[in-house]
Amino acid sequence: MKKLCIFDFDGTIFDSITDVTKCFNMTFEGLDLPTPTLEEYKKSLGGNVDEIIELILGERNSPENIKLVKSIYNRTYNEDKKENTKTYEGVPELLRKLQSEGYILAINSNRTPESIKYYIIRFLSDINFIDIQGDVPASPSKPDPYGVNTIIDKAKVSKNETIYIGDSKTDVETAKNAGVDCILVRWGYGVGDVYDNEYILKTVDNAEEIEKIIKEM
């Protein structure tokens, strides 16, 4: 029986790519750098912001360029109204249903905890996440299992009682490294053959399927 549901953030709970790409494009245009396509952005997502910038810059990546782009992007993103970022259809209802039935909920992301909490307060203030693990300098980022293991310890459950829900290759690797079951959603930013990974327990097309799978386990 599953007791703990750990969710990825971007591409799983929240559709944030429009505002992220807009702010990155503004950053690159200001630096006279080429702006990637949406598909190129999707291929770069999954790691922390430094890793994303490194992939986007490609041959232009260097410690100096990464630091410069990160500084301008963070300022641009923080100042932006982020009017396009929203929860995916059915996900808030899923979280409320799971919470009402006694499941423990948590978030494990490579976004900063402060940014995650901003959206939780704005859109999901009635959801009591036991823990929010994000990108902080002192802790390793996904796909390292640090965040998942920290959440499991705090929830006082076993790995067999834990399910991880994400959308990308990074999420599959995170779940595998932590030794927990993984559900992959198809509405996020997964690309290529990520859905064919043998480690995935199930892939789903809508939020209702997640509830059904968890209850059947």
Layout of helices and strands, plus pairs?
Elements (H helix, E strand, L loop, with lengths): L3 E4 L6 E2 L1 H14 L7 H7 L4 H9 L5 H17 L6 E2 L3 H10 L3 E5 L4 H11 L7 E3 L12 H10 L6 E5 L2 H10 L2 E5 L16 E3 L2 H10 L1
Parallel strand pairs: 1-4, 1-6, 4-5, 6-7, 7-8
Antiparallel strand pairs: 2-3
How much helix, percentage-wise, in residues?
Answer: 40-55%
Estimated structural class: alpha/beta
Envelope shape: globular
> Which regions contain 5 or more consecutive residues with pLDDT less than 50?
none
- The rounded Rg comes to 17 Å
- Count of the separate structural domains: 2
Give the CATH level 1 class of the largest domain: Alpha Beta
| First-last Cα distance | 6 Å
**Second rung of CATH, namely the architecture of the largest domain:** 3-Layer(aba) Sandwich
CATH topology of the largest domain: Rossmann fold
Our count of helices gives 9
Q: What percentage of amino acids are in beta strands? A: 5-15%
Number of strands: 8
Taking strands numbered 1, 2, ... along the chain, how are they ordered across the largest sheet? 5-4-1-6-7-8
- CATH superfamily placement of the largest domain: HAD superfamily/HAD-like
Largest sheet: 6 strands, parallel
- Note the run of SSEs as H and E: EEHHHHEHEHEHEHEEH
Q: Roughly what is the average pLDDT, rounded to an integer? A: 94
